[in-house]
Amino acid sequence: MANRFPLILDTSDTNKIKEIPQGDSLNLADVSITNAHDIESLGTISAPQMRIADIYVTPGNYLKKSGDLATYGGNQFKFLRVAANGTSIEFVGINEAGLFNGEYTGDLFPDIDLNHKVGLADKRFAEINAGVLKGDLQDANGNVTFEYDNGVFYIMESGKRRKMISETRAILMSILF
Length: 177
Fold this sequence. Notes:
It contains one helix and ten strands, in the order ββββββββββα. By secondary structure, the chain is mainly beta. The strands form four sheets. The chain has a four-stranded antiparallel beta sheet with strand order 7-8-9-10. A two-stranded antiparallel ribbon has the order 1-2. It has a two-stranded antiparallel sheet with strand order 3-4. The N and C termini lie far apart (111 Å).
């Protein structure tokens, strides 16, 4: 019984029909294989492009180290995985990817200074608990109310930013003297 397809005509052996010899290759450059139920490989599958659920996936669709973030179509901060149906791919967040479950132990820092944010104006954390917070503080309008580098508090008054510490000192001095 033939278990290696296709059968070939061996013209060097009196035109006998034989199985394709083990170790030989089958060149299908001008033909297609359609309606295959499953395809298994013991080696590498190479192709210039791949189509999953009628969407062409090519190397250009993915971010390369020097690539353009726009190639992700707005999903550049998500992870790519095979969907549950096994026939398509999907972009998912860090929690869905199983990489973060709400608890993190260890240091968490960006790769470039002052380059990343935590939370958004419309998606804020309800509470932050920390031993030490370092940095500038801003009000809801983006005005700096505390400058970390010089330790000065500010208040917005009549559209102008004024130092609170120096005013507090002045009031204290006027009371004492």
